[in-house]
Amino acid sequence: MSVNPMAYEAQFFGFTPQTCMLRVYIAFQDYLFEMMLVVESVILKKLDGFPACKISPFQIRKSTEKFLLFMKEHFDKLFSKMEEVLLQLVLNIPKNVLLPEDKVHEQYPYSKEQFQALQDEIHQLQKQYRAEASAGQALRAELEEQKAVRAELEKILQWFDGLENICREHGTCSFKESFAFLTQNAKKLQDVLKDVEEKSKKIKKHDRLL
Questions:
Q1: Are the CB atoms for 50 and 14 separated by under 8 Å?
Q2: Per residue in 131-168, pLDDT tens?
């Protein structure tokens, strides 16, 4: 049997040509064995009509096996030649023939160097994507933390607004002045809150790009 893998032929036929030839060989061989058994049974029936014949069934079986061996040796030689012809002329796809699903390789040919360059580029892009995904995850974690901080800041601002309203209602300017420093801090907190909102917008924009 041929040792050539014939992978391209297997892609086209759906089976390897060697497998096809092996099945044909087994089928012919089984038919040869069955034929010799039929011949042997016919000979035995003929001998029953000649009681004076001294040939025993055991001798018939030995002769049948000997003849079968002779036939098998010649069959193997003939089949070897037939296999060679079929694998070369019938079950072989010429080197200049492309299967329909491989036509794209003819339209866009690539050398090994170009293919390797594409592979390297793909690996680099995958590496960059993983880095971007990791950075995005870190930004989302920071956003969640900033949301919690923002909620606390809003509570503080509401508290300061409430204090100012109380001072205004009761005309206690001295109380308001006593909280002047706190009011300045409130403005600083407002600036921080604005910065948090800007970062949140940037993170959302980054997530849309991913």
A1: no
A2: 888 888 888 888 888 888 888 888 877 776 776 666 66
The whole model's pTM is what?
0.45
Residue 23, pLDDT above cutoff 60: yes
58 part of a folded domain = yes
Q: Please indicate whether residue 60 or residue 49 has the higher confidence score (pLDDT).
A: 60
Output DSSP code: residue 100: G
CA atoms 63, 69, 72, 77: torsion sign = negative
Retrieve residue 124's tokens: 């680099």
Q: b vs e for 9-28, b when ≥16 Cβ sit within 10 Å of the residue's Cβ?
A: beebeeebbbebbeeebeee
Buried b / exposed e along 51-77 (16+ C-beta atoms within 10 A): eeeeeeeeebeeebeeebeeeeeebee
Written as six digits, the tokens of 51 are: 């009681």
Domain stops at, among 43, 77, 102: 102
- Closest alpha carbon to 107 in 96, 98, 94, 117: 98
For 68, the domain range is: 7-102
